[in-house]
Amino acid sequence: MGDFMRQYWLPAAASSELKADGEPMRLMLLGEQLVAFRDTDGRVGVMDHRCPHRCASLFFGRNEEGGLRCVYHGWKFDADGNCLDMANVPPHQDFKHKVHAKAYRTRERAGVVWVYMGDQKELPDLPQIEATMGNEDDTIVMFIQRECSFLPSLEGSIDTSHAGILHGPARRPKTKDTDIEGIIIANPHPEYKVTETSYGTSYGAYRAADAGKLNWRVAHFLFPFWTLAPTGPIEGHVTARAWVPMDDTHNMSVYFARRSTLHVSKLATLTGGVADFTDFLPNTTDWYGRWRPRARRENDYLIDRQKQRTETFTGIDGVLLQDQMITEAMEGGVPDFEWEHLAPSDHMITLTRRRIIQAVNAFKTGGIRPPAADTPQDYLLARAGFFEAAETRDWLDAYRERLAAARAA
Question: Which residues 6+ apart lie within 8 Å of 278 measured at CB?
Fold first, then answer.
């Protein structure tokens, strides 16, 4: 799975986390202990934290004059991993042209540092996911670490039937709202259509609306770890989330939203708004010290049992934190799938698992390139959102029509 993930660009850090000639940062990606830094000219380097000389940690290095210098013997490396200087080696014995730190290629877009950990000679283009393609001023980016495997996080984002329950009120309203979020709360058991796509999988969850119409919530899984959730109208709600594996038991959620199109849902308002987007512990220099919510497993996510009785279904503030609690509490973040009893409401989960397994096996045994790894434009076929359509319309036809109209507007 790790080699499979390396065929894609990974959103790894906020550009603002790295200052020119500033302190290096520990960075855990795909189980590798890396160090990231921004050099004098603003270039970002991401490399193995071990100096190629004697394996001293480059985290303690001096970031100065166009490179990172190890404090053990003074060997210095640029952002590409080239050795620039061997301070303890006599000039006539210098062999720096033969030494190279293990370094990965980086790019920056929308205020994010992207890292490619595959073949460094053949780089694909960055993914053409709408929410990630805006300029920095029009892009909201949030990093939130989860102490669990990436898969339950990803699956929670494509499991739409939990929305009106986990994120709902303590008691169901007696009167039925006519907007989509009111319908979700009143009817927490939609029916589904699911399909495979060139970039992953898609679902359409539908509920009865006005006479002759259906409410549709269409969403997507994009290889290797992206989800597009239907938390706003399809006409103007451009968001995406990456669930980047740090290691087997930690992942970094990277949320992108185009500021000019952001829709704040009624569910989010009901359950605490976006308060838990920003309530973090101070970052530390530990491998897992970045972007940790203050409400966490150790303090039971600050659950308020009185609120659980009278206000929200969980007593935990905020949609993101409610999702965090659910996935981290699954067997320490790595669920035992043998305990599961999957239902018709989990059709998107089962299809996505099968799609991932098939793609990984095809890559591992047959060398077949992963979906969309070399065709990042395929991601432009996807946008999540809700809309109404006549019950006689094919859901994919209705979705494509509404998406085309939204982009043409």
Answer: none
Residues 6+ apart with CB under 8 A from 55: none
> Tell me, what DSSP letter sits at residue 50?
B
What's CA 32's distance to the chain center, in Å? 18
Question: Are the C-beta atoms of residues 268 and 249 closer than 8 Å to each other?
Answer: no
Task: Name residues whose C-beta falls within 8 Å of residue 151's C-beta, 6 or more positions apart in sequence.
Answer: none
> Average pLDDT per run of 10 along the chain, which is 409 residues long?
95 98 98 98 98 98 98 98 97 96 98 97 95 93 95 94 87 61 71 97 92 93 97 89 97 91 54 53 97 94 96 91 92 76 93 98 96 97 95 96 93
Q: Which CATH class is domain 132-408?
A: alpha beta
**Domain pair 2-126 / 132-408, same fold:** no
User: Alpha helices of 9-147 — where are they, by DSSP H?
Assistant: none
Specify the pairing of strand 44-48 against strand 67-69: unpaired
- β partners of residue 193: 204
Give the sheet arrangement for strand 103-109, strand by strand. Answer: 9-14, 112-116, 103-109, 44-48, 32-38, 25-29
Q: Tell which CATH classification among 1.10.1660.10, 2.170.190.11, 2.102.10.10, 3.90.400.10 matches the domain 2-126.
A: 2.102.10.10
Phi, psi (degrees; rounded to nearest 5) at 48 = -55, 135
Beta bridge partner(s), residue 196: 201
Q: At what angle do helices 150-157 and 347-366 cross, to 10 degrees?
A: 130
Q: Is the entire prediction scored with pTM above 0.85?
A: yes
Residue 322 · residue 316 · CB < 8 Å? yes
Every domain of the chain and the residues it spans: 2-126, 132-408
Residue 264, phi then psi, degrees to nearest 5: -95, 115
